[in-house]
Write a structure and sequence with these properties.
single chain, about 425 residues, alpha+beta, Beta-lactamase, Alpha-Beta Plaits, six-stranded antiparallel beta sheet, 12 helices, 15 strands
Length: about 425
């Protein structure tokens, strides 16, 4: 075995040729295979193999179902606590599902992780009927939305990705959809990294092992039906660069993930070389904005005879919220509760302060505002930081019971 090192444009070209030959070999061995990798910021395609060939999307279809749900939420048509009716049609959906029954209701806050984590077909139909009246009408809306996104080769016939000979897409179109989910709804993107969720006493774990097994992957979706093979759409960050990848037609979930990892490795190397050769500046990295003062408990425990209805408003001066703290809590205190993402820091600060007021058994809570750049859009994440893992989980559960959306995240080293 020998290693040849190449630099500059020649090395980049050789790398691309080698990757192309490997992809051609794989495509010949597996006619269902298709793949694409692109730079999320520039849109540059770093790798493509059968990227425009028609393929069955399988459960990657649910990314469009989620896109339209997020769109309805942003328009105020749906809320996290909106309870959607379960029809006989929805309840009849085969595995994978969450065992919904006709006449029940499914809240939006449960439908989202059911689609992302469990890839639940019954939940997909519930959303489809809530937004489109019927699943077939919703599929028409899905296809129209795809056309408006320039996903010209995509047509949907259902909301779940269950087998339908007329339902088709391409690796390129699904990469466009992945990118649009991130750009159009960055405040909801965190759902795509959810590792597990519980519904009615049962815990479901994500099929997407890329999030756990490949450093830098922070989300998207997997899919499988017999006709499609194993599909995955992936978003990954390395340094200050983000890539979107789609691999379709894997023979197994393991071989699909291995191929995606190889393509991402090559893509990051190509993107870095391209940036150096072109002199293009890298996108701005994430900045952590943390208050210098903790938000202290604003409601003291009073005797049971005192009504707890009047809560004093906790406030943090803006300049405190925007002062930079160099280090997050370390060790066991490196856990946080993320409350949401907002377009201005003041909104994030107010939301986090509101959450802090609701947790009346925690003596000291530190509010953090985390500025992130996702596909050239700046957002501010509201967090309560400096907690133990169990403490963060308990806090998030209490906030959820009060109707506040939240997510437990690890902050140490991030």
């Amino acid at each position: 075995m020998f290693v040849v090192r190449h630099t500059g444009k020649t090395g980049c070209l050789l790398l691309a040729v080698m990757l192309l030959l490997a992809s051609l070999s794989q495509a010949q061995a597996n006619p269902r295979y298709a793949a694409i990798v692109l730079d999320a910021d520039s849109g540059e395609v770093l790798h493509a193999s059968s990227a425009d060939a028609a393929r069955y999307p399988a459960s990657l279809t649910k990314m469009m179902t989620l896109y339209l749900l997020f769109e309805a939420m942003d328009k105020g048509l749906m809320r996290l606590d909106t309870a959607m009716p379960v029809s006989a049609h929805a309840a009849s959906m085969p595995q994978t599902n969450i065992s919904l029954k006709k006449g029940e209701r499914l809240r939006v806050r449960d439908a989202i992780p059911a689609l992302v984590v469990r890839s639940a077909n019954d939940a997909a139909v519930v959303v489809a009927e809530a937004l489109g009246g019927t699943e077939s009408e919703f599929a028409r809306i899905m296809t129209a939305k795809a056309r408006s996104m320039k996903m010209t080769a995509t047509r949907f016939r259902n909301a779940s990705g269950l087998p339908d000979n007329a339902q088709a897409s391409t690796a390129r179109d699904l990469a466009i959809l992945s990118l649009r989910l991130m750009k159009d709804f960055p405040q909801h993107y965190h759902y795509f990294s959810t590792p597990s969720f519980s519904y009615r006493g049962k815990t479901y774990h994500s099929h997407n092992r890329m999030v756990k097994n490949y450093a830098g992957v922070d989300g998207m979706k997997t899919g499988y039906i017999r006709a499609s093979g194993f599909n995955v759409a992936t978003s990954a960050v390395r340094g200050e660069r983000r890539l979107i990848g789609v691999v379709m037609g894997g023979n197994t979930a393991q071989s699909r993930d291995a191929q995606m990892a190889k393509l991402l490795d090559s893509g990051f190397e190509q993107a870095t070389r391209f940036a150096k050769a072109s002199g293009k500046a890298a996108p701005a990295g994430s900045k952590l904005l943390v208050s210098t003062e903790p938000v202290r408990q604003v409601v003291r425990k009073e005797p049971a005879t005192r009504p707890p209805a009047v809560l004093q408003r906790a406030t943090l001066p803006v300049k405190q919220t925007l002062s930079v703290q160099q280090a997050l809590p370390v060790g066991d205190l490196g856990w946080a509760v993320q409350i949401g993402s907002f377009r201005v820091p003041e909104q994030a600060r107010d939301r986090a302060s509101d959450a802090a007021r609701r947790l009346d058994n925690i003596d000291v809570i530190q509010v953090a505002v985390n500025e992130v750049n996702i596909s050239n859009r700046t957002l501010f994440r509201a967090r309560l930081v400096g907690m133990h893992k169990d403490q963060a989980k308990s806090a998030c559960q209490r906030l959820s019971r009060q109707g506040m959306d939240c997510l437990v995240v690890k902050t140490t080293g991030s």
